[in-house]
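request received
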Amino acid sequence: MITVCGKIQADTLTVAVAANFAETLESIVAGFEQAHPHSVVLVRGSSGRHYAQIVNGAPFDLFFSADSVRVQQLVVDQLVSPGQTMTYAIGQLVLWSPASEPGTDIALQLQGARFKRLSMANPRLAPYGQAALEVLQGLDLTGVIKTQQIVRGVNVAQAYQFIATGNAELGFVALSQVVQEPLSQYWRVPQELYTPIKQELAVLKDSIASKAFLDYLASSEARALILLQGYQLPGND
Amino acid sequence: MFQPSDLIALVITLKLASYTTIILLLGGSPLAWWLSQTRSKAKPVIEALIALPLVLPPTVLGFYLLITLSPNGLIGRTLEQLGLPALAFSFSGLVLGSVIYSLPFVVQPLQNAFHSLGNKPLETAATLGAGPIDRFFRVVLPMSKMGYLTATVLGFAHTLGEFGVVLMIGGNIPGQTQVLSIAIYDHVEALDYGQAHVLAASLLGLSFLVLLVVYASNRRANLVTLQ
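response:
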C-alpha cells in the first residue's frame, strides 16, 4: 500500500451549533477555511434537538451546545469521553428594549412591570431562559410580573424574534444578538444575578480535521472574534 | 401520568380545535356553496388561495401572522387604533391562525359534497315551493351529511396536530397558548422523553380514533347506498 505523503487530505466537517452561536461560528469558519483545506458545514438548531439527533446517530463531528447540560448528558450516555468536552464561550445576558426612548432606565421598566409583553427563552429548554428566570427571581419580580405578560421562545433566537418584530416591548436575549444595537437599547444584566452561561462543546468524531478546527478555535483570531461578538472566554478571569 | 400543565395544554388544544371547527363550518358553508355553484372567473383564484395552506409550510403562515399582528403590522396597528387587545400571543390569535391553516380541510369536502348534489334535488324543491333557506336546511344539509362529517373531523383533527403556526405566534403561555404539540416539543427538547411519550401516544391514539370514526361512517354510508 502506498501512502501519499506531503498532501493533506481535505475533509468536510459537519458541526451542530446552537442558534445563539451560529453567526459567530460562521465567521470563525470563514477564517478556518482560508487557512486550511478542510471545509465546514454548519447545522444550526436548538441544543435539545441536536442532542436527540446525536443520540440517534446523527453524523456530526462537533457539537457546540448552548449550555453544558446537553454535553454532560452525552458524557453520561458514554457517547463522548469527559476529555472530549470543553467550554468555548460564556454567554452574557441582556435586557433589550429597542422601542424605549434613549435615556430610559430599562432595569426600572422591568421592575415596574411597565410593559404588555416581556420575551424570554423557555427556562426549561434554554440556558438564557434559565438565566432570565434567575434574574426575575433574584429581583423578586416573579410576583410582580404576571404569567400572561411573559412570552417564551423555544430558544433565545425566538425570544429575540418576538422583540425584533415588535410583538414584545422588551426581553432577555444574548448580548451577542444585540451587539450591533445602540448601547442605550439594552441593560447588561450584572453577572451576580445569574449563574454563568457556560457554552460547552463536544467532540463526537476525533479526526485530523476536527483537531485542526479546535486548534483554530483556540487561536487569537478566533478568540478575538468570540469576544467581539459579545461572549466572554473561559479562563479569562 | 399526565402532569397538570399537560392537562391544561390538552384542554387548550381541544378548545382551539372546537372553536376553529365551528367557525370554519359556519364560514366555510357559504363559501363552499358559492364555489360549487359559481361560474365566476374568480373561482380558480379563490380555490388556489384556499388550497395554499395545504402546500405552504405552516411556518410561512406563522411568520406572516407574527409580522402583521405586531403593533407595527397591518392587523396589529388597526386593532390598537380601535382599542382592541393585541392578537399575538393570545388564544384568539391562535384561533385566527388555525382558521386559516385548516380552511382547505373544511371547505374542500363541503364543496365536493355540494357539487355532487347536482341541480335536480334543488330544482325539484323549488318547484314544490321551497324558499332558498328552506332548500338549504331541508335538502342540501341532509344530503351533504357525509361531507359535513368529513369536514368537521378533518378540520378538528388538523387543528389538533397544528404546530408551526402556534410555535411562531403562541409564545408558549400556559393556559392560553400552550397547546399539546408545543408541550410535546418542550418535553423532547428538555430531554424528558418519558413525559413526551405519554403525550405523543395520547395524541396518536386520539387522532386515530377520530379518523377511524370518519372512515367507519363512510363505509356505513357506502353500504347503505349500495343496498
